[in-house]
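User: I'll paste a sequence; please echo it back and then give the predicted structure.

Assistant: Echoing your sequence first, then the prediction.
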Amino acid sequence: MNLTSTKKTLCLLVLNFCFLLVLIPSISAQKATNSVKSKPKTQQAPPLEVVVYQNGKITFKGKGIAFDDVKKEVQRVASTFKNIPDKIPMRTVGEVGMGTRHEVETRISEGIAAAKWVRKKATLTTQESKTTQTPKRIDFKKEKSNSLVWEEKVAAKASKVFVFKATKGQKLTIGFIDDTKQGSMDLGKFSIEPNTDPFQMTIDVTKDYRLSVTNNSDKATSFRISISLENPQTVSAKGEKLDIGSFSKLPSDIDGCSCTFSDVNEKSKDKYVYADNWEKLAFVNINGVMTKLTLKKTNQKTTAPKVKNVANKEVKTYGNGNYEVTVDIVKGKQVDETWAYKGTMTVKSKSGKTVVKSIKGICGC
């Protein structure tokens, strides 16, 4: 092989190599393009909307549903969202009557509301399980009294739980005052309304009883709780009568500065169940008789578990040998030279029979 043919061979090899350098990237690019083109297109999810057609057909998220299933399907789909939507749009195709449109919109709203309620209920259940309270024990023996009155502060949308032991045959009297009028009290299967005459029952089983109070308002508040237990021998005291009546005319001893209290449900301003002269004398209508009593003690320490916010609290006890009357009151707003009060009045006979009333009224000059 001469030098000339050798040069030709080298030139051909170089040309072939250059051709391959150009051709290979083009083939790779073509393959990549073909690969991209061969991938199926991702199908878009149908819009979150309810569509009502002129012929009566209804679709939700592109799927046909029956008219009666609109609420159920909206609730099911809405529940899958982390944040449940406040609204799901509806549109119509063709002429759809106003009544049909309104009914479908109503069912959409009900479905959303149901989804939110289920979510909220689940959240509350979880919170309750995390914050299960140990009931606070009410110990009458430790407090050395069978009748207790105290104020309990309860946070917004929260509850306080108590437990107390009662003996078969005892008479339970319980109630509470709530200025928000949104509170509730539960004793087992019994629900007790605020600002009414105390609930009473005879204990039929000796055991611990669970009591709860709930603040359903959006602000913290204080409930004034009263509870008493009469012993069996007192309850069966020969059917003794102990009625607390009202009166309109104040005794002549009530002149000048005074306190006058009515039943908490009394609408008339001139019907009283209690009056005192802000000093030594008090009057209560007991068994139809205007009964005069003298002051025995005042401002005694409240016998109740963990009493709070008692700066405006006053406790006064009057007696006459046959009856003992205790008013346990909390001062409210001042108007001119008078102050509003709310609380309880406990009337106890010599034999031990007791009546408790929720009262409201004023003190002043």
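The first helix runs from residue 3 to 38. The helical segments are 3-38, 70-78, 98-130, 140-143, 232-235.
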